[in-house]
Amino acid sequence: MSTKTALIIGAGIGGLSAAWWLTRLGWRPIVLERAANLRTNGYMLGLSGPGYDVAQTMGLVPALRRHERPIDENVYLGRDGRLLWRARYRDLIGDVDWITLSRTALVQVLRDAVGESADIRFDTTVLEIHQDDDGIDAKLSDGRHCRADLLIGADGVHSSVRRLLFGPDEAFIQPLGYRCAAFQVADNLGLGYDFLSYAEPGRLTEFYTLSEGSLATLYAWKVDEPAPVSPERTRQALREAYAGAHPRVLRYLDLLSAEAPLFFDDLNMIDMPKWSTGRTVLLGDAAHCLTLISGQGAGMAMTSACILAQELKQADVVTALWRHEARLRPSIERLQARSRKIAPLFIPATRRAFKIRNMVMRYLPPRLLAWYFTHAIRSEVHAASKGLGIGDI
Fold it and tell me: Contact at 8 Å (CB) between 287 and 310?
């Protein structure tokens, strides 16, 4: 029996997770990454629920714990610098299994776990895709052609695979009405394991220590009509959005050099009627971006890769792709509905909504707050054990 080949576009969390699982099935994964190396500008994320269960099944939890950046307290200040409210992170999440770490660290742990079992090619992507009943022919950007039994598009919210085979971005991207920017500067705040946030109607800014000597920033704001912003105008657009903000918030914009990497994008959700066509499947943000509001994007990408491998073990490729979606879609739809619901709480747009949110956070008993934050996580854990059926291969 010949070895089956999977062509995976994207060496991020979803793509590397898929490579890890497929090697356990005896497949040959070829992973293409547009960037010159593993991306190192990742920011903080939380791994819980199904994602944590998958990491545990993969045996990665000890390695992830070594990279953990626990959060002690989140302190919220207003535009005038006065304290709005503060909360201890552990009080909010209770006894839920949770790992907080940088995206960079998670990707590196996955890369180390994959080892030499996958052929990872950097500075390479796919230009053309042609499918037939027996496989896929892909033309690559390095001039080579690749024949594969399966193609996985794990290339993010602005997926090239999705555009090539499913349609233009505007058919599937749903802006939530918020925009965000993130960058890193030298740490001169000394926050340790605390988050410092400046909140006001329509704007939220967060500062936290990403690693020793490195301070990460997140600027997020409400936009009524998120018109496209050219790469040349992102820094100017960020400054315009934060006119009149707290001096500290503006000071770190001054420290952002013209050469420093800047992440700038809308908070977009991907909503598609189907995630596969023929022998091609979209995975992670390419298929169902949940936005950073959900806190489950990385974990659900890992979960998707696990479920896909389970189905490929039991059925032919086309049938496995259909079964994979049937199992995963209910959880994704619940998470997307929750993201839409809590977006106004993430950044209240009006002064009245902002005041009410702050009063709730300040005066609601900690036990009720903890229940609110952990309820969705626990329901997803339940779904993982009952509906998703995560386990060994």
Answer: no
DSSP assignment string, 30-99: EEEESSSSS-----EEEEEHHHHHHHHHTT-HHHHHHT-----EEEEE-TTS-EEEEEEHHHHHTT--EE
pLDDT digits (tens, 9 = 90+) for 187-228: 888 898 899 999 999 999 999 998 778 899 999 999 987 788
Q: Where are the beta strands (DSSP E) in 154-261?
A: 173-186, 195-200, 203-211, 214-222
Copy the structure tokens of residue 198: 């400046």
Q: Rounded CA gap, 281 and 150, in Å?
A: 8
CA dihedral 262, 112, 281, 270 (to 10 degrees): -30
Q: Strand, coil or helix: what is 11?
A: coil
- DSSP codes joined into one string, 307-351: HHHHHHHHS-HHHHHHHHHHHHHHHHHHHHHHHHHHHHHHS--SH
* 3 state DSSP class of 279: coil
Torsions phi, psi for 89 (to 5 deg)? -60, -45
In whole angstroms, what is the distance from residue 289 CA to residue 346 CA? Answer: 17
Listed residue (178, 225, 184, 237) closest to 204, CA to CA: 178
Count the alpha carbons within 13 Å of 345 in the hemisphere toward its beta carbon.
Answer: 13
CA 210/CA 42 separation, integer angstroms: 9
Domains and CATH numbers, the chain: 5-172+269-388 (3.50.50.60)
Task: Find tokens 């993130």 and name the residue.
Answer: 182
Nearest residue to 203 via CA among 229, 235, 178:
178
Residue segments in the chain with a per-residue pLDDT below the cut of 70: 1, 93-94, 293-295, 364-393
